[in-house]
Each structure stands twice: as C-alpha cells, then as structure tokens.
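Homoserine kinase (Phototrophicus methaneseepsis), 313 aa
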Amino acid sequence: MVFAIAEAFAPATVANLGVGFDILGLAVEGAGDTVLVEKRSEPGAVILSIEGDEGRIPYDADRNVASIAANAVLKQIQAEEGVGIILKKGLPIGSGLGSSAASSVAAAVAVNALFGEPLKRHELLGACLEGEAAVSGYHADNVAPALLGGITLTTGTGLSDIQRLPVPDTLRLVLVSPAVEVSTAAARRVLPADVSLKLMVHQTGAVARLVDAIYRGDVVAMARAMGDDHVIEAARAKLMPYLHEAREAAIQAGALTLVISGAGPTLCAVLNSSDAETSVAQALEDVYTQHKMACVVRKTGVAVDGARVLQTN
Ligand code: HSE
C-alpha cells in the first residue's frame, strides 16, 4: 500500500559512551526530530519547510541531511515519484545529541513508510549514513541507535557491522546541554591522528570491559569502563564548558560517572537507578547557573525501539 503522506520520529542519541569512540551509541527516550513527507509526481526530494531550527538549516536538497537521506531511499527503492519534506527539529544543532542523525533517520523511515515499507528497517542504514555523512562524517554510532533503538555496537557501515546490545534494566541517564554549540567537525579536528600502543591497549581494554558489563547488565562496571577514556576526552575537554566541575557535581549527587555525549557539549551522567536522578539533574543545572550559562537538563533512559512511524495516510 502506498500513501500520500507519512510521518516518522527518530530519537536523540548518545554516541561513543565514553571509550567507544565512533562505535558505541544509544537511543534516548523523549527528545527527537520528526519528518513528514508528502508524495510528489516529480522525482527526488525537496525541502518544503523546516521548523524549530531558527532558520539555520539549509533548504538546498543537496546540503540538507533529511533530503539527502530521503533521496538515498528513493534511489534504493527505484521510486519514480519524489517527496516534499517538512522537517520538525526537536533537537538543537551541534549539541552532541545526534541531531543530524535524527533528521536523517526520520526522513529515511518516513519515505520508506510512504512507499509501503519496501525496505526492512536495517536496510535503511546506508541511506541514513549518507545524510549523516554530509555534516558529521561517515560513522554510524548515532544513526544506528536512532534507527534501531537500544544500545548499538557499530564497527563498520555495512549491515553485518551492527550489533544490538542488551539494555541493562537499571540504567538511567541525566543529560545536560549547556547553551554553547560545538560542531562535530570542530570536535574531530582536535583529536590526535595517532595514539601510542600503550594508549591503544588501555582503550581497547576499556571498550572490551564496557561491552562485557553491558551484556552482564552491570551498570556500575559499565560506568567505570565508560569513564576510562584516555584518548578522546583528553583532546576534547577544552571544548566542553565546566566538564570537570559537572562530573564532580554529578558524582557527588549520586551519579556513577559522567562522559561527553557524542562530540559534545552535552554531558551524560550515568546512574544505576532513578533514585538520584533529581539530585543529579539539580546539581548539573547548578554548575551552569553558577557560571551564568543557560542549560537544558533531561532525565532519561534508553529508548529501546528507536525510530517510529507516527502516521501514514
Ligand atoms: N562519534 C562521533 C564523534 C559522534 O564523537 O565525533 C558525533 O557525531
């Protein structure tokens, strides 16, 4: 069955999970982007309107991640018709919450729904990555969890490179997004081109411990491994306002650790229950308030289901 319109939502994501640079990520409950597509007789994707971006996202179909992902799906399914896109941004740009991945994924899922779901969910990964690559680089640690939900391990860009990991029952997160922007490109430029063998052994050990802890549902060990990154945070810390202060405050208030979410500046505190959620959220807000910097705090958990179709008609 084909439709005249379809609408899809894709969640925010936390990439890297500390040590798992470019390979680990999780989908977050609550916030995300929504894309509505309507069928057009002309081939290809055009952007009809963009809401919630304060006029910052390009309408040019070759530069907009939603239309790039939509065009990739249209090509994949060999559609003769095209789509008009209404992009509703729920996520701030350059915040470390997988904003471009959410737009790409919501667009790909909406186009697939419009044409009666010719592709399985995981078959949309390549199209989502094309969108993401336009602004963030060719890595799937945000698009995979936004598309599939849960916690994902992505070691390449093919379908067989994605593993869904179990979500520990007691895992809770508090995210704080200070009102500054850090582009992924800028946050990648500060990274070292090479690391020593000693650091490589340390980092791979921490990733291995993290994956093991996730499988065992051991959030304490998970947090310990997440926070054991000696490569990425060391290079990026200077771009994240009050990172060390925020970590100390979050841990004092009951969090197990705090890591940079994706390329930042959002920070992600990790908790083993919802008991301390409110005090961690308050402690993080206080850090930025004391420095007269606005911030948004979100108490959340892992969204197990990822992107979803909201309507077809
Ligand atoms: N893994 C990416 C990074 C996520 O940290 O640069 C941001 O897109």
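The chain has two domains: 5-166, 172-300. The domain at 172-300 is CATH 3.30.70.890 (Alpha-Beta Plaits). ok done for today
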